[in-house]
Design brief:
single chain; 267 residues; mainly alpha; two-stranded antiparallel ribbon; 13 helices; 6 strands; 43% helix; elongated
Length: 267
């Protein structure tokens, strides 16, 4: 912090809460928004006229602020559940994620600091112990440490792990599920010819609900149906809301996930 800002007290916070206008842009209206990503993922699996009709309906539900945004997302959730599903096109699963986005109250983005490289250090093999003499020789070794844009945030999250030399490299893994929700593209094959089936069944749902309620701080696995961005533009989740508000997960949100009818059952 001192190397980048001079006075650490002048450094802005590493996290910035999204404004209402920005939130509408990143979730609904803007380039690369959640809704745009959804439509791109759906495109290979829908007839052009049906996709065009859905886009027109989405434009008709454009929200002007964060309050209307929730209503629009819940409308989109129900609209997705009315569409037919198959093994490569799971509108019902995407609807579950849209539902969670609708009930997430607080979204943040990372304010990246300038990366920098430390001054040169000259290390003697004897500084590291006798066993390094044979590996390094008797000469001093020059060493520089490069600190990435998210190094400070990584340190704040991984404060309990003092052996981690590059905590910013593990941020993507730490965010999965508990801090950032899955991509809606997780539930759609990239093409009609893709062999991989998007397995999202009752067992997957039970695991997800159990992780959300019993282990909200733990990242979600990546060996299942969920896909996460390595460098998300923003993050936020119902689990993070619960921590910030010192409360349990939203009861209305969880009740819907537990009780909504099953529309498609994987073979």
């Amino acid at each position: 912090m001192r190397c980048v800002f001079g006075d650490p007290k002048k450094a802005p916070p590493p996290l910035e809460k999204l404004s209402s206008e920005t939130l509408v842009s990143v979730l609904w209206k803007g380039d690369g928004s959640l809704v745009e990503e959804l439509l791109q993922s759906m495109a290979p699996h829908m007839e052009p006229n049906l996709l065009s009709d859905l886009k027109s309906k989405i434009r008709a539900h454009n929200p002007s602020g964060s309050r209307e945004l929730r209503k629009s997302l819940l409308w989109l959730r129900d609209e997705l559940r009315d569409l037919p599903c198959n093994s490569k096109c799971r509108h019902d699963a995407a609807a579950d994620v849209i539902h969670m986005y609708a009930f997430t109250k607080c979204f943040f983005k990372v304010r990246e600091y300038k990366s920098f490289t430390s001054p040169r250090l000259y290390i003697s093999p004897l500084d590291l112990g006798p066993k390094y003499v044979d590996k390094m020789g008797s000469d001093f070794q020059e060493y520089c440490k490069t600190y990435g844009k998210n190094y400070c945030l990584g340190q704040l999250i991984y404060w309990h792990s003092q052996t981690n030399a590059d905590p910013d490299c593990r941020l993507a893994r730490a965010r999965r599920g508990c801090l950032s929700l899955p991509d809606v593209s997780s539930f759609y094959g990239k093409s009609l010819n893709q062999v991989h089936e998007r397995v999202y069944d009752s067992r997957t749902l039970r695991f997800m609900l159990s992780r959300m309620e019993q282990q909200p701080q733990r990242p979600w696995p990546t060996d299942g149906v969920w896909v996460f961005k390595n460098s998300p533009r923003f993050f936020g989740s119902p689990m993070l809301d619960a921590v910030l508000n010192r409360s349990t997960l939203d009861k209305e949100m969880m009740q819907w996930l537990k009780c909504r009818p099953t529309l498609y059952q994987s073979m």
